[in-house]
Structures are given as C-alpha cells and as structure tokens.
Amino acid sequence: MTVPTLRPEAAATLARGAVIPAHPLALTAERRIDERRQRALTRYYLDAGAGGVAVGVHTTQFEIRDPEHALFEPVLALAAEELDARASADVVRIAGVAGGTAQAVAEAELARGLGYDAVLVSPRVAGADERALLERARAVGEVLPVVGFYLQTAIGGPVLDRDFWREFASIPAVVAVKAAPFDRYRTLELVRGVAASGRADEIALYTGNDDAIVADLLSEFHVESPSGARTLRFVGGLLGQWAVGTRAAVALLERAQRAMAGDEKAYRDLGLVASDMVDVNQAVFDPGNDFHGVIAGVHEMLRQQGLLDGTWCLDPAEGLSPGQAEEIERVRHAYPDLNDDAFIAENLEAWLR
Description:
Elements: H1 8-16, E1 19-21, H2 35-47, E2 52-55, H3 72-86, E3 92-97, H4 101-113, E4 118-121, H5 130-140, E5 146-151, H6 162-169, E6 174-180, H7 184-196, E7 204-207, H8 213-217, E8 221-225, E9 228-232, E10 236-239, H9 246-260, H10 264-285, H11 294-304, H12 324-334, H13 341-351
Parallel strand pairs: 1-10, 2-3, 3-4, 4-5, 5-6, 6-7, 7-10
Antiparallel strand pairs: 8-9
Helix pairs in contact: 2-3, 2-13, 4-5, 6-7, 9-10, 10-12, 11-12
C-alpha cells in the first residue's frame, strides 16, 4: 500500500508551525449559505497570514453533512476556489471528515478531488470504540494524509488514553495531531502517546485547546520515546478561536516561536498576554453555559466586525447565550491587540466584492 504524502510546501508549513483557523459557515437569515460572505472569510484568513485553513470541521458545523442541508461539498468547494485563486503553495488545505468509516472515506475522497492536502478526522462517532476509530483512521489514511483530533467531551468527544494515541500516531499516514481536550492531563497523555509511537519527528503537534493557547505554545513536554528521553512542543494551532483575530494570532505565534528560540522579552510579553487570551476565549466560546454559544460566539465576533451578517446556525437551537454579545463587545474593546478590528475595516469592502 502506498501511503499518501503531503505536498512538500504544505509539509514544510505544517512542520514549521502555522496559524490554521477553523473555518466558520456564513449563512443568511433563511439558513442558506451566504456565498459572498463565505468567500470573504477565506480571503480574510489568507490576507491575515494564516498558514492554512481547516474547512468542514466543528466550527463549520457538523450539520453541513445533513441531507436537508447538503452543504459539505459546496462549502469545501468555495474554500478551494479561493485557495486556488489567492493562496501561495505553502498554505495547508485541511478538510474535516466525520461519521463512520464509509462516510469518512467518501468525504476524504471528495476532499482529495478538490485539492485538499489532508483530513482532520473527527472522533465524535456514535457507538465507535477506540478500535473502530483506529480502523477508520487507517482507511481514511489510504486516501489522504491524516490529522488526528482530540475533541473535548463537552461537545461530544470521547476520552482517549495514551495507548490510543500511541497506536494512532503509529499509522504511517498521520502527519499531525490537534490536541483539544481542554484538559491538561489529557493533553499530556496525547503527547506521551505520540512520543511512544516512535514517530514524533514525523508528526506535528497542534494545539486546539482554545482555553490554553499561550500555555500550549510555551510548553515543553519531557517525555519518553523508544529512542530515549525527548522534548516535544506544540508548533502551531488549529483553532476555532483563531477564526477570529487571525492576523493577531499570526503575530502571537511568531512571538511564541521567538520565545521558544530564546527571546526572553517575547517570553515575558506572552506571559502577560496569556490571561487576556483566556478572557477573549471565554467570551467567544461561552464556557459558563457549557459552550452552548461556542459557534454563535465566533459568528458574533465576526458580525460585530462586519464580516458576517448574523449569527445564524444550521441548528436553530444553537445561538448566543444571554449577555454573550455584550461580553464579546467588551473583550473587543479591552484587548485591541488580540482582535483585527482595524485590519478588517481596511479590507472588508475588497473581501466582500
């Protein structure tokens, strides 16, 4: 069996570390896709300096796959068109895949046909145990390179232990793993599992812990591997939080890279920013209401900035929690260096053409 590989430019970006926003879904009040604003979002991320985009993931809404919406292919196709027109060769194109093995493989094949580089495999599969998740990843990995995903339990992710991640990382097609359990112990288990696989040099670690972005980027994990003690770290982020403030996120990641290379001032500055970033995230992700407003919160930030026309989700039950819009407005004004208000205002008209 031939293992699919990344384009060299995409592989270099993924290994170096990049800001990869989880792409939202722009809808009209009738809950139909707003193509103009969907394209504008992709243009924003590219012009902000994102090293990649992830489309068809949780932030894009899993419901795009439902037959009554049938938006999975159109949403991936719109992003692919913008990437073809505007992106440099080193921008990584990631598509989310979900469902059981047959569905995930079919989605990966569609993504391959549209020019995507890799697939992020959602672990939220009804009735699937760890063995089934591993077999699905192997099957998907015959189509495209695979990015693993540890999804927090609050929105349906399973608890996955170190042995799972060791075996998952042993799959030759796996090129990266996104850690998003929102739990320090589980994050460490994932890193230890990747190290134990013996493939740590071939797998890029990306934070998806939106509540601990700076902490993850500044952490060194001292772990054991088959070749002895190793130090591993997160090289970038694939985040719903970075679907907003993307240009600021690019600057933050660059500062983190300088800090980890020995720049003491950059390290101290990030220490001051860490709690501010958590404050922004609590407003957007709505943890006080068990993340009920997590997707709508991303939409609301983008609506306040003019990129979206509303906060509509495919599921009418999803929306902002009471007071969430005001919290988002508060953090926008409190932390101007962590949002892109001025950058968006300068470019909005061009992106919406």
